[in-house]
Flavodoxin
Amino acid sequence: MMERMKEKNPDRNEHIGSGQILIVSYSYSGNTHRIAQEIQKATGGDWSEIYPWQPYPMAFPELLQQVKQEVQSHYRPGLLPTSHTPQAYSAVFVGSPNWCGTIAPPLASWLYQNDLSGKVLLPFYSHCGGVSGDLRGDIFRLCPKADVREALSVIDDGGEELPDILREWFIKTRITEFRIFRAGQERSFL
């Protein structure tokens, strides 16, 4: 099954116009939010944040207990409506904090609820140095008909190096050039 995660043509470069890029993210502490914001800035894509119907506890012990239980039971929380649906997009950046070695349940819910067949999925996640798990594989299991690329792991919010970290990830995942069209101007990300 994991064999299907591999790209059909690993030498291809992708040219994706800004109207074809969607960034979807869930952020608890703000770190994933900052990464998504920088991706949006770099690509010009549309950005949609995910919010669960029931917010998570603010106290860390309660949060950790709830997250462990949700991850172990594969719980899919209800979500507030989002600003964009993925149908019109060819590439979707999907971001989450790393919770217990996997994606946060709100992102898992969003992935489960949307048909992402044939789309390029570019997972990214923030973490504080904990267990990294197999977030790419976890996303692939939820979206087996998508082209799931290598996940980007960022400690905290990436700091000042975040633009360089993103540039290297775009090259590594073979999204080597973004052509952004705005008001008659074209610019390349790289």
Summary: Residues 13-188 form a domain with the Rossmann fold fold (CATH 3.40.50.360). Helices lie at 31-43, 60-73, 105-113, 135-142, 162-172.
